[in-house]
Every structure is written in structure tokens, then in C-alpha cells.
Amino acid sequence: MRSAIVTGASRGLGKAFAIGLAKDGFALSLAARDAAALEETAQEALAAGAPQVVITAADLSQPGAAAGVVGATLARLGRIDALVNNAGATRRGDFLALSDEDFIEGFALKFHASVRFCRAAWQALEASKGVIVNISGVGAHTPEPDFTIGGPVNSALINFTKAISKRAQGAGIRINTLCPGHIVTDRLARRIETRAAERGISFAGAQEEMRIEHGIAAYGQPDEVTNVLRFLCSPAASYVHGTVINVDGGATPGI
């Protein structure tokens, strides 16, 4: 029985990732802050085919959280075959209005937690010849004036993933970075709502403005990112290692 840890699994892409891996027969260890939302994801994952689901409600920005989740996973599931570091939402806004604490919290949840999970799960992943997928984002490639925390955090995560890829290869672990673009989730809806309120326009109007600005034909659906994650966690991706994959509908213009 293969097992996977998915962080930030209570909603949005994390929830979609968990259900996608459940369809592929993974037992799951799901972690996020919200226990009730995690339980909902767990029930949907079981219905989708997961043979077993373990949930851990924890603040993953805290130094001991990753080791706790990994320990619970090994105790209940016995092994780790995939680690999906998805947790982490950073605050948007005018740079001058963002505090030191906003930056520190942003790095703590997305970057430092991912580093800690990689370290804590390394031995188990080496034993299973497993897979790590670090979820970054297209803001890593295309800086935006209201994303001065999230962009650098995502860039740092790509750098970290590249930096340890040779060590991972030597351990028999595959590691890659997946960068979703503008995907239809609660987080995107909040961004659109904020823009609509700031500009005094309708949600639909703000949604269309943002789509045009990002140069995409349409917003992405969670399954369109999940399908790539499932590929990366499968034997079909056995020669995909140390790379960065954008799933953004062509929003990223750089090479």
C-alpha cells in the first residue's frame, strides 16, 4: 500500500490533490490547521478510493509540526511514498503596508515548513524510493507589486528544490516543483472579490479584468493541476526529476 502526505489538504488545491491521489490508491496523511475541513477531505478521499486516511490538525509553521505529521504517518501507515508540500498562503497587499511579521509568517508556513517536511520524511522516502512534489506558484517567475511576500517565497522554494535535487537523486528520491497558475479556488475568489470592492465593479467584471491582465484564455480548474501532480507521483514520471513544471494556461511568458 503506497502512502502520501499532503499538506494544506483542508481546501483548494490541497483537497483536490488528496482526492486525486486517493483515486490512484494512495493511503493518505492529511495535514492543515482546520480539523473539521480535514475530516471532510478525508471522507471524500475514502469515497474516491483511499484505503486509509490519517488526519493531523496542526499549525505547520511551527518548528515541530513536520516531524509530528511524519511520525504519525509512519505510525499509522508504515511508510511514505510521496510527500506533497502544498501548505502556505501569503498575504497580498501594498509593500509599505506589509509588516515584518507578514513576511516572517509567509516564509514560515510555505518555505520553512516544506524544508522541515523534506528533512523529516527523507529517511522514509529513501527507503521507499519515493517522490517529493513542492508546490510553488507562477508568482515565482513573474513578480507582482501586491505579491512581494508570496513571489519571493515561491522563488525560494524552487531554488531549494533545485539545490537538493542531486542529493535526492543519490538517495533514490525524485523531487520536482509544480507551479500552479490562476486556478479556480476559494483563494482566487477572494482576490477577485477584493478587486471588485476596491474598484467598485461586479465580481464578473473584476474576474474578466484579471483574466485579461494575466494573458490567459481562461482560469484553470483544480483537476488540471491535480492531473499533473498525479503524473509526477506515478511511475510514469520515473525520468522527471529536479525540474519545474508550470500549469498556468500560458500566463508565464519567461523562458
List keywords for this structure.
8 helices; 14% strand; Rossmann fold; 7-stranded parallel beta sheet; globular; 2 domains; 255 residues; 7 strands; alpha/beta
Model description:
With 255 residues, the protein is an alpha/beta fold. The chain has 2 domains: 3-183 and 221-246, NAD(P)-binding Rossmann-like Domain (Rossmann fold), CATH 3.40.50.720; 184-219, no CATH class. Helix content is 50%, strand content 14%. It is built from 8 helices and 7 strands, in the order E-H-E-H-E-H-E-H-E-H-E-H-H-H-E. It has helices at 12-23, 35-48, 65-77, 100-128, 150-171, 186-199, 203-214, 222-232; strands at 3-7, 27-32, 53-57, 82-85, 131-135, 174-180, 244-247. Strands 3-2-1-4-5-6-7 form a 7-stranded parallel sheet, sandwiched between helices. Strand 4, helix 4 and strand 5 (131-135) form a beta-alpha-beta unit. Helix 3 (65-77) packs parallel to helix 4, helix 4 (100-128) runs parallel beside helix 5 (150-171) and helix 6 (186-199) crosses helix 7 (203-214). It is globular. The mean pLDDT is 96.
Strand content: 5-15%
Number of domains: 2
Order of helices and strands: EHEHEHEHEHEHHHE
The helix fraction, in percent, is 40-55%
By secondary-structure content and strand pairing, the structural class works out as alpha/beta
Through-space gap between termini: 39 Å
Please summarize the sheet with the most strands.
Answer: 7 strands, parallel
Number of extended strands: 7
Note the overall shape.
globular
Identify the CATH architecture of the largest domain: 3-Layer(aba) Sandwich
